[in-house]
Structures are given as structure tokens and as C-alpha cells.
Specification:
By secondary structure, the protein is an alpha/beta fold. The protein has three domains: 60 residues; 270 residues, no CATH class; 92 residues, no CATH class. Helices cover 48% and strands 16% of the residues. It has 16 helices and 15 strands. The chain has a four-stranded parallel sheet with strand order 4-3-9-8, with helices on one face. The protein has a three-stranded parallel sheet with strand order 11-14-15, sandwiched between helices. Strand 3, helix 7 and strand 4 form a beta-alpha-beta unit. Helix 5 runs antiparallel to helix 12 and helix 7 crosses helix 12. It is elongated. Keywords: Membrane, Transmembrane, Transmembrane helix.
Length: 458
Amino acid sequence: DIIDERKDIELLKSDKYNLSSSYIRNVYESLCLRMVRNNLCKRTILSYFLFVVTLCIIWSIHSTSIKSEEDEDFLSSQRSTTYTTITITITTAILRSSTTTRYKKLIQQIYNLDKLNYFYNSSSIKIKRQSTIEHHFSTGTNQLTNDNVSTTIDTLVSQSDETRLKYWLINSKTAGVNLSMVLAQKSQKKYLVYACHANCGGWGDRLRGIMSTFMMSLMLDRDFRIEITHPCNLTRVLKPNFYNWLRPLNVLRRDPITHKSHKLTLKAIMTTDNIKKSYLKNVSKIIQNSTINQIWSEDIIYMSTNKNYFHEMSENLRYRKKFKTYGILTKYDIKLETLFPLFYELLFQPVERVKQQIEQYINMRKNRTLICAQLRKGQNPTLVNDKVLLGRRNITEIIFNFIDNYIKTNDTIIDYKIFVTTDSDAVQKEAKRRYTHHLIHTQGTITHLDRSNTDEAC
């Protein structure tokens, strides 16, 4: 086109067609303008193309560097396995001995926890929670607060809580977690709330959703809350332990300059089983590939889910450095099965009524070896609305045969108790027939949080 336009200009200049000068000038200017436009258009396209290619190259280099850093951290953690074992042995010995100031400093260096002395107190069996570990229970401002939850500010941690926390702090899979960062106060302007005010699945489904949401709150630097009111308030059974998820939300915010109050913006995200697959895929893509706070920028995000989003979070390159501040060095450490026990210990403790019932079952054990099994088969005479789980028809024989073989092949097991929980009357009867006086099981009607009436489920 440019060559043809130049030829036209030369013809006009030679005045071969004997045209008027004004006409020639106009045509000449239009042709020149077309040439300029064509050149600018091509240069613009070329510039955009080079820009996109450059971005792709930079992102590729960035991804490669992060992956190599991940692999290096993983290999480093593998090389330090022996050191970790030695550290755990030393720390255990320290914990069993009198915890002096020098020992406290040593433990603090090992785990890099600025506030570890809150959890290890040499002078008392019980220790006080402080900062976010403190329970600032409201006196009626939070709809979830009820009589089962203590209203005192200084709540004491029992010796059993302290012992359980010590166990997870010296466990090889969670020893590197920076507890002070996990428990630290997050942004007071942003919240992530696990919400369940309708059908959300069974307790296992809900725990999966709670842990995913809690992990996401750490990733996004948002304060975490739990609101479960279906079929009854969660606080009838559990209350906060080291992380207070029950503090009331500050829905109104006051501008420090204008002194005017405004409501916080809200967003609801629901990814339970009855949601469209296209929506579920979109949420997973956002968690895995996006800067989440830019897409979900609202002040309060209510998330109702029973999904495990740990894999998606581990693949999001934008938050790798954030995870490292929590002592989670590689994506291989971001797993539900790895972090669940520690997170559960930080979030929950049973209310006094439930704790007393738990102690009754613990006393039945009487220092014997305890073997536990949980069998979910689906649809029971007391759960007519439950789904049938066809793939679990033979689960009873598989689990019980495994327990029998385990007992036979372990010479150290002389006396034992077997604790069985199940949703099947048939499994209960078989367990009683098979294990008689060795069996421990819960009494009462078999129920399901979403498929039983409120009184039975609560």
C-alpha cells in the first residue's frame, strides 16, 4: 500500500493529468496522511506485541525463579530432617525439665516465635492468653455468643491445652510454622467469615470449609471469623481456643477526618454442592491464579463452602512470600492433612459440657492402647434423607480386618480399647459382636447436621 501511495504522489507531482493545484494539494495531503496512519498503526501493533512478549518473558522468568526457590527450600527441608529430629529431642527434654529463661530463649530461637513465653510458663500449670489469644467475648453484640461461652477477658489455658499445643509445635510437619504470625492481629479493615446459616453438609464438610477459609484469611491478611447457626449455634459445642474467631464485626466505620460513619461493603461467596459447576470453577481459578483482594475487594467476605482449596492456594504464585512469613516455606507444606491438626488446636476447644463427656470416654481407656475408627456408610434408618454411598458397601470388613491384623502383628499391644464412631446401626452391632468388652462407642441416636431435625442434631 505504501509503495502504491508513493507512486500516486509522484504522478501528482508530475502533473501528468493536468489537474488544478488545489485539488492536487488536497489529494497529496490525504495520501500523506494515509501513509502516516498506516505507519503509526503498524508501529502501535508492533509495540503492543513487543510489550506482551516482554511481559510473558518476565512472568516466565519469575515463575521459574519461584519454582527453583521452592525446590531449593524443599531440598533444604529434606536435608534438615536429621537436624529437626535432634531439635525435637532436645526440645522435648527441655519441656520435660524446668523451663528456665535460658531454655525459653533456646526454644524461641528454634521456632522463631516472639511470644512463645505465652504458651510455656514455668511457674504455673495454667497460662494466660494475651493479644489475639485473649478472649474478648462480647456481652450480647455478637449473635453467636451464648451462655456456654465464657464472658471473662482473661481465659486460662488448661494443662491439657498446653500439652496438646506443645505436641504440634514439636511435630516434624508443623514445627516450622510461625505461631506468633498466625495468631497476630490482621487488618482491622478486612474480614473473611466462614458462614453457615443453611445446609452446609456434615461436620467433616464444614471442617474442610473452615480450614480452607482460615488458611485463605492468613493468605489475604484478613481477620477470620466463624458464624455457624444451622442447625444451632456452634458455641453450644465449641468455643475459641488460641485464636478468637468470635469477636464481633465492626460493620460501621468512622472516618477519622470527617467523623462520618459508613457501612462496610459485603460480598457473599457460596461454593457448596448445590452450586453450578461453572461458578465453582470460576472461584477455583480466582483462588489459584489471581490477586484475590483486587477481585474480591469488599471489606467483609462471607464464604460458605465445604471445599478443600489448599491446592489452589499453594499454586498461587502471588502469595508465596506471604506464606513464608508464616513459616510455610514451600507449596508442598500447604496441605490440609498437614495443617489441619494444628489449625484445629488453635481454633477450637470444647465447651465445659462437652469436655466432661470427652473425659468420661478418656477415663474408659485407662492407659490402654487406643485404636480409633470412623465409618461413614450413608443412609441409615434414622437418616432416611441421607444419600447412599455405594462405594462403601464393604468398608466395615475392610476396616475391622485392618484393626484385627494390626493387633495381631503388634507385640507391644497387650491390652487395648477400640473407639468406633459410625452413621450405621449395622456397623455398631458388628463392632459390639466383634470386640465386646474392648469397645468404646457413643450412646444415643445417629444423627447428621444437615439431615436430622434440630433437637437431635444439637
